[in-house]
Amino acid sequence: MKAETISVLLKAYAQLQEIIDELYEAHDRAIENNDFDDASLLASRADKLYQEAENLEILITELDDR
């Protein structure tokens, strides 16, 4: 795999991690404010993106090993 492709995938992974962190922080604030519906939605989206980030990390590792 070309280095540029790996680089773009790594950048996407890092950006996903930032988004995930923001969603979990918003979840925590929603819990503090007793906004449980919002908290549930935020956690659900963060969890989904976390899974996608894990899959992307596996892909990057596999491509980097080639």
Write a compact overview of the structure shown.
This protein is mainly alpha-helical and 66 residues long.
Strand content: under 5%
Count up the helices. Answer: 2
Globally, the shape reads: elongated
Q: Provide mean pLDDT, rounded.
A: 96
Structural class: mainly alpha
Query: H/E series, N to C?
Result: HH
Low-confidence regions: none
Number of strands: 0
The helix content is over 70%
Distance between the termini: 7 Å
Radius of gyration: 15 Å
Sheet of most strands: none
Structure overview:
The protein has 66 residues and is an all-alpha fold. The chain has helices at residues 3-32, 36-64. Helix 1 packs antiparallel against helix 2 (36-64). The longest helix is centred in the N-terminal third of the chain and has 30 residues, at 3-32. It is elongated. The relative contact order is 0.18.
Break the fold down into its secondary structure elements and pairings.
Elements: H1 3-32, H2 36-64
Helix pairs in contact: 1-2
Features:
2 helices; 66 residues; mainly alpha
